[in-house]
UniProtKB/TrEMBL annotation:
Matches recorded under PROSITE patterns: WD_REPEATS_2, WD_REPEATS_REGION
Name used for this protein in its record: Uncharacterized protein
PANTHER family the UniProt entry points to: TRANSDUCIN/WD40 REPEAT-LIKE SUPERFAMILY PROTEIN, TRANSDUCIN_WD40 REPEAT-LIKE SUPERFAMILY PROTEIN
Gene3D superfamilies, A to Z: YVTN repeat-like/Quinoprotein amine dehydrogenase (2.130.10.10)
Keyword annotations from UniProtKB, A to Z: WD repeat
Lineage: Eukaryota, Viridiplantae, Streptophyta, Embryophyta, Tracheophyta
Length: 287
């Protein structure tokens, strides 16, 4: 508030350009940089806590903490990899390589591919705890090949023995959903859904994803891309194995410019805020 405001704290632990930061409820700050490293800073003790490295072989573009697992973070990079970390120990819990032959097009048959861009991970969004009645604990992944993946984190982070036999984890996969045995019954648990251009999705790289903060929190997934469009998805339908339904595109907005970032506001006005390559910040109202 003074005439010459100064930063309260400055941290110089990263040695390369920082692409994203995130702060946890316990006071940890994560900074993802171009070297592929993520520095975890304890902002209470004002010191470097951990250095997360060797999961990414290229630029680490995004980092998020997982709200319901206070010692877990998730990262994505321009090596097409998604990695979850126990940052208290500095080790990975699981990783997904979207550049692998079986995943780069979202299906084992490779039928859902589009554009020649690699499946770089440009942005991540982790759902808040308790959304939609507490049924879902997921992460949305914005990919460079125009697809958006929604990953069941509860499944991926579960102990290996609870996931059933190895054959179950690689069973039925389509361009829209993957079903795996849950290890405890004959019912199937959806491991991952894949939202691509065959469902009305993006035709160029997806730059940003977020879960809606207005209305029923987390009900919609919003994605923006280099195709100058914003897509709003009713995503949870794709995880309903009982009805065997698919995620649904509910709204497509042409914003005329490439989308750099977007967010929603938790207000009665139901606003979507879009930052694109123009000089104007756009606010869309859904009431």
């Amino acid at each position: 508030m003074g005439p010459q405001p100064k930063p309260l704290e400055t941290y110089n632990y990263n040695r390369d350009e920082i692409n994203q930061i995130a702060v946890s409820s316990k006071g940890f700050l994560a900074a993802a940089d171009d070297s592929g490293d993520v520095k975890i800073v304890n902002t209470i003790q004002k010191c470097l806590y951990k250095r997360l490295r060797e999961a990414h072989t290229s630029i680490c573009s995004s980092v998020q903490f997982i709200p319901w697992r206070p010692w877990t973070a998730i990262t994505g990079g321009l090596d097409s990899k998604l990695a979850a970390w126990d940052f208290s120990k500095g080790r990975t819990l699981f990783s997904i390589d979207y550049g692998s032959p079986e995943l780069q097009n979202g299906s084992s048959s490779g039928s859902a591919g589009q554009c020649f861009n690699p499946a770089f991970v440009h942005s991540l969004a982790v759902s808040e705890e308790g959304i939609l009645g507490g049924l879902y604990k997921v992460c949305a992944v914005a990919r460079g090949d125009g697809a958006v993946d929604v990953v069941n984190l509860e499944y991926e982070l579960a102990p290996a023995k609870s996931k059933g036999p190895p054959w179950a984890a690689t069973s039925t996969m389509s361009s829209k959903r993957t079903e795996v045995g849950d290890g405890s019954s004959n019912q199937s648990q959806v491991k991952r859904i894949h939202l691509d251009y065959t469902m009305g999705g993006h035709t160029a790289a997806v730059s940003c994803v977020t879960f809606s903060a207005f209305g029923e929190k987390g009900k919609f997934l919003v994605s923006g891309g280099n195709d100058a469009s914003v897509k709003i998805w009713d995503w949870s339908k794709g995880f309903s194995s009982e009805t065997n339904s698919n995620a649904e595109l509910v709204l497509d907005i042409d914003v005329k410019k490439k989308v750099n970032w977007l967010c929603t506001t938790p207000t009665d006005s139901d606003n979507l805020i879009v930052c694109d390559t123009s000089k104007v910040v756009k606010v869309y109202n859904f009431r």
